[in-house]
Amino acid sequence: MKKMKGFLMLALAAVGTLLTACDDELDVKQAYAFRLETMPVQTRIVRGETAEIRCTLVRAGKYDGARYTIRYFQPDGKGELRMDDGTLFLPNDRYPLTREVFRLYYTSRSDDRQVIDVYIEDNMGQITQNTFSFQNEREEDDE
């Protein structure tokens, strides 16, 4: 009888521990790592020429509430960046990114070296950056 009483006490303690340790709420992961992959991009360009940048947003996991934006900054040179739907980006303005596979088109407006930084950010504050550099074809001809 003493063994049975000890076993019941142990069982009640174990059940009590389990009940207080459990949580009714699901732990849903919302922030997954991501990166922007691109096909190889040309590095030489002349004024007025357009370079195509084929992009894929690669996500480590899926969360239905995840929202992404895209923006760019041009530290060197002058040019225009457009989305494949025709949207002309203004530097440092955020635009919704609604597809995982898309194309960007950079048009040179300069005879100098040009650099653009493309940023993708999610609504959880995570950010990834890709830098693209273009040399003017005439620079090589002058050397």
Task: Please tell me about this protein's structure.
This protein is an alpha+beta fold. It has one domain: Uncharacterised protein PF12988, DUF3872 (Immunoglobulin-like), CATH 2.60.40.2410. It is built from 2 helices and 9 strands; from the N terminus they run H-E-E-E-E-E-E-E-E-E-H. It has helices at 2-21, 137-142; strands spanning 34-38, 44-45, 50-59, 68-76, 79-83, 95-97, 101-108, 114-122, 127-136. A 5-stranded mixed beta sheet has the order 2-9-8-4-6. Strand 8 (114-122) and strand 9 form a beta hairpin. The longest helix is centred in the first third of the chain and has 20 residues, at 2-21. The protein is rod-shaped and about 95 Å long. It starts with a helix and ends with a helix. The model is unreliable at 139-143 (pLDDT under 50).
What is the string of helix and strand elements? HEEEEEEEEEH
- Quote the beta fraction: 35-45%
* Radius of gyration, taken over Cα atoms and rounded to an integer in Å: 27 Å
What's the total helix number?
2
**Tell me about the biggest sheet?**
5 strands, mixed
Number of strands: 9
> So what's the CATH class?
Mainly Beta
The global form is rod-shaped
Number of domains: 1
The CATH superfamily turns out to be Uncharacterised protein PF12988, DUF3872
For the biggest β-sheet, the strand order reads: 2-9-8-4-6
- Helicity, in percent? 10-25%
